Structure to design on (131 residues):
């Protein structure tokens, strides 16, 4: 479920940036192995969550992914990539199913423009003159 279904889906550039961050994070964690270096996995996870949230917006699915990455062997799975794809899919589906708002209408109040002195000048009185 999307926290804000009124959010427009991210642009292609942001989607590609988020996917690149997710794939790089997963590949790095797979490359360093299940033992990893001291806090390297956690630093990568924090950076991945911040960058992905910046690119496509925060989504509640990012939190469990972040917690799963703390488990030593589970970080060998491509969880960031899977979560990012799921968030993109959910945002697109929410944007497609949400009804489009009606276009704004312009209404003009005619009262300031009607009945003024400039529009209806008073009738002229004829001056008495030689007849």
């Amino acid at each position: 479920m999307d926290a804000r279904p009124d959010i427009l889906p991210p642009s292609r550039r942001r989607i590609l940036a988020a996917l690149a961050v997710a794939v790089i994070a997963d590949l790095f964690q797979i490359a360093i192995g299940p033992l990893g270096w001291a806090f390297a996995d956690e630093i990568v996870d924090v950076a991945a969550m911040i960058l992905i949230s910046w690119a496509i917006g925060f989504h509640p699915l990012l939190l469990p992914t972040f917690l799963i990455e703390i488990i030593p062997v589970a970080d060998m799975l491509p969880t960031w990539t899977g979560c990012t794809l799921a968030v993109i899919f959910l945002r697109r589906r929410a944007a497609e199913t949400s009804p489009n708002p009606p276009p704004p209408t312009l209404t003009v109040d005619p009262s300031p423009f009607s009945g003024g002195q400039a529009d209806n000048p008073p009738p002229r009185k004829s001056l008495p003159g030689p007849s």
About this structure: Residues 12-32 form the longest helix (21 residues). The helical segments are 12-32, 40-56, 62-68, 79-97. DSSP finds four helices and no strands in the chain.
